[in-house]
Amino acid sequence: MSDRRFMLYDTMSKSMRELVPQEPGHLKFYSCGPTVYSYAHIGNFRTFLTADLVVRTAEALGWQVSYVSNITDVGHLTEDSLADAEGEDKMARALQSKEGERFANVWDLADHYADAFVEDWRRLNLRDPSVRPKATQHMREQIVAVQELIAKGHAYETPTGVYFNVASFADYGKLSGNRDQDDLMRAVRDVVQDDNKRHPADFALWKKDEKHLMQWFSPWGWGFPGWHIECSVMAMRYLGETLDLHAGGEDLRFPHHECEIAQSEALTGKPFSKLWIHTRFLQVEGEKMAKSKGNFFTVRDLVEGKNADPLALRYALISVPYGKPYNFTMQTLRDASSNVERFRLCEEKVAAALSATRPGDDAIGPELDALYDEALAAMLNDLNTSVALAKALEGTRVILREAELSGACADSAQRFLDRINALLGIVRHESDAPASNSPKVDEARIEALLAERAAAKAGKDFARADGIRDQLAAEGIELRDSPEGTTWRLKGVV
Ligand code: AMP
Ligand code: ZN
């Protein structure tokens, strides 16, 4: 493949830019993780999958990737998305909700949702980050960073907390475009104002609160950190002062990422990240997801509640490039399910052909290699997943088209499936975590039933043979008859 430049739409410069690691062949990448006050929804995962695809594409180029994705387990307030930190702590509020009643305390709640999040992450076959830091485990560094910002004249203390002084940082607004007084006033409207702040857009680095459910002792008394400071601190702690790439959902551009930039660059005097990418929000059935509209889905709602195949859900969520609006529907998931099924059929066909080792030429290798190159080229073009998936599917057509695969063809097909899986993660699970929609299967019992069915068929007892098929189907196990015999699999349809 000739052009192996990794191009991304950089939301800072609003242009396509090449991702060039500062250290050749070693990408340093930070992607904002979830706030763990409830189960992550499929929109969140659209954003996390974007990061996953960056990692996979970089690895396909042979790069080493240092990938940090955090867990926010303190400090994200209900009004943080509007502007400055106001409102209630999201986790403290979750504890007081109906679902929160089952937790002993807020720490227990955070642990539960953080574990559930990692479980969903693995179900959808996302690569584990090199580090998954938690805000609560980096409190000391956050306090030190706030002290330094005060010492450098970028922050000040008030009776309610410590605030970043946006007027002290000339570049404030360079990411979001909220640069002048009017822009900032518009962006921070509707927010309860703290009269002690010098400017309404100044944002909290530390909140004083002796009654807060999660609190730490600091030079400013008991309290907790503002949401933004954790990402600056954890990104720089693990990846250095300038990242190659920083990612998140589109809502994070302002205020979260704008504030991360201000804090980090005020501390170091260096650019915080070379490039920025933001994932467009996922809508469901044409509307913003909302519990009240019945279109709000967590990963577990679909995987456990509707028996969706996790790989099909992954396929569906990446099927539209991250920078484009995406309206997710149940039909998208059904289509993804049948596409994922094609890869499974290929896997079976290739496994059978590899053990048969039939003689013959490699009639499909060059075609498959070209399709893989085209899939990779699409990913290098701002993660164009719709083209990459189309090329991958074309590959399945090539493999399934052959009546029989020679040993040489099977080798090529296997290489194609392995490389497509490494790039897109849609062929098979790579992590050890179980695909959690799998019913508990007793393989020995199924094999015994298959033997009994074969015997019934041989004895022309078709009623018994069909009975066994139906019994297994009711348990979520599908049988497939072929001249080589009968195989079984878990059904993964919505
Ligand atoms: P949160 O847990 O609210 O901090 O969100 C975690 C990540 O999911 C952030 O990067 C958000 O920008 C992103 N996100 C939230 N809702 C959506 C959505 N509907 N579509 C895509 N990304 C989203
Ligand atoms: Zn962040």
Task: Explain how this protein is built.
The protein has 494 residues and is of the alpha/beta class. The protein has three domains: 7-279, Rossmann fold, CATH 3.40.50; 287-424, Isoleucyl-tRNA Synthetase, Domain 1 (Orthogonal Bundle); 443-490, no CATH class. The chain contains 15 helices and 15 strands. The protein has helices spanning 42-60, 90-96, 106-123, 139-151, 181-187, 227-239, 253-268, 299-305, 310-318, 330-356, 365-380, 385-401, 407-424, 443-458, 462-474, and strands spanning 7-10, 15-18, 26-31, 64-69, 155-157, 161-164, 203-208, 216-218, 221-225, 243-249, 273-279, 282-284, 326-328, 477-482, 485-490. The strands form five sheets. Strands 5-6-7-9-8 form a five-stranded antiparallel beta sheet. Strands 4-3-10-11 form a four-stranded parallel beta sheet, sandwiched between helices. Helix 7 links the parallel strand 10 (243-249) and strand 11. Helix 9 (310-318) crosses helix 10 (330-356), helix 11 (365-380) runs parallel beside helix 13 (407-424) and helix 14 (443-458) packs antiparallel against helix 15 (462-474). Mean pLDDT is 90; it is low at 433-440. Zinc ion (ZN) is lined by residues 32, 231, 256.
